[in-house]
Design a protein that fits this description.
The chain has 371 residues and is of the alpha+beta class. The chain has nine helices and 18 strands. Helix 2 crosses helix 6. The longest helix is centred in the first third of the chain and has 16 residues, at 28-43.
């Protein structure tokens, strides 16, 4: 991934792309250099990687290109001191050292000046790869960028600029290699004095989208490797957002293969309708919903929309059940997240999932467990 590449973010992790990408590895020479560099950083007590998009070419890109599609109020061109300050406010007292990822040749001031100011004002020690490797090794911009990339993948915590393709690819590569959403990825171009916790797997560049729990698909209930992952899809009509469709990828048996949608980061985003879809080879699935007027729909088969659109009628309950032979060997278990409820509400096999008194539905998680 060449440094300075100015393109679109990586594609969403669908199809077999993640399984292909996970087998792409750097050459042995680059891989060994990255391992050595990472070992040297660990010996110095470095456990955080921090991308500093402060280079001269980035400042030009921020002034001439980003304003065409990114809000100018977005903090995509912060000075280095604010970036480190935001990291310190987020990572707390354990954040004492950081590995800096940037193009040293294009820095607006020397790394020594940056290091001295950061240490004096914030007490944070910064390290660059040139502190550990000879200049001859870093003569190639491609090799230099690949070393930064491999180290960023290994670090327990990484923070970057979500408008940077490099930053997006770090999260995406971790997803491809591990099969799970990255847990300790952060972005610093979210407005405010702290880092934003990245929730997606890398494809989203807008900071408010990348940090929205809507894109995390974090399960409400524990999931197990032996859970049955039938590739049903879910379309939810959500207030202020419209239709959102989740289509699990049967080629990627991951946490993202479960049907889980959480809109609770914004209480205005209540579910107003649901529709499940499948194919002729899947078991029969039925579902019903209840809205805030108390109206309950009849049991509906796959492909039927239950609820409303554009009428301001939030759902306050739902129920799901399997039909036919599958119901004899499988438990249909689901959970809902409701406004004002301290924890998700769970229900099995056709029972209503709702609160007393009724509250707006803000999230849904569906799993199938063998009995």
């Amino acid at each position: 991934i060449p440094r300075g590449r100015r393109g679109r973010p990586p594609p969403p992790p669908v199809g077999r792309a993640p399984q292909i990408i996970r087998f792409l590895r750097p050459t042995p020479l680059v891989g060994e250099l990255a391992e050595m560099l990472y070992a040297k950083l660990l010996a110095r007590g470095v456990h955080h990687a921090l991308q500093l998009r402060i280079e001269q070419d980035w400042q030009g890109y921020s002034a001439e290109v980003l304003p065409n599609f990114a809000p100018q109020t977005e903090d995509y061109n912060l000075p280095f001191m604010e970036i480190v300050q935001n990291a310190k406010a987020t990572w707390g007292p354990d954040f004492k050292t950081a590995y800096v990822l940037c193009d040293e040749e294009c820095l607006p001031t020397s790394k020594e000046t940056i290091r001295a100011h950061t240490k004096a004002e914030l007490g944070i020690d910064l390290f660059w790869k040139s502190d550990f490797l000879p200049a001859s090794t870093l003569a190639s911009n491609l090799v230099s960028s690949m070393l930064d990339f491999e180290v960023a993948l290994k670090m327990p915590a990484f923070a970057g600029n979500s408008r940077s393709t490099f930053c997006c690819f770090v999260a995406f590569e971790i997803f491809c290699r591990t099969g799970a959403r990255p847990q300790n990825q952060f972005i610093y171009n979210l407005a405010g004095p702290r880092l934003g916790h990245r929730q997606d797997t890398g494809p989203l560049m807008a900071p408010h989208e990348a940090t929205d729990s809507l894109n995390a698909h974090t399960p409400f209930m524990p999931t197990q490797p032996h859970d049955i992952r039938w590739p049903f899809s879910l379309t939810a009509h959500v207030a202020t957002l419209g239709d959102i469709t989740l289509t699990p990828d049967p080629a990627v048996p991951l946490q993202h293969g479960t049907l889980c949608l959480d809109t609770s980061a914004n209480m205005l985003r209540a579910f107003e309708g649901l529709q499940f879809d499948g194919n002729p080879f899947l078991p029969d699935l039925e579902y019903r919903v209840q809205n805030h007027t108390g109206h309950q729909t009849e049991w509906a088969p796959l492909g039927t929309f239950c609820g409303s659109r554009g009428q301001g009628l939030p759902l306050t309950g739902f129920a799901i059940r399997l039909k036919g032979p599958a119901a004899l060997t499988t438990t249909c278990l689901y959970a809902g997240r409701y406004m004002g409820a301290p924890a998700p509400v769970t229900a099995p096999n056709g029972q209503w999932c709702r609160t007393t008194p009724p509250q707006n539905l803000l999230g849904l998680h569906l799993v199938f467990k063998p009995t």
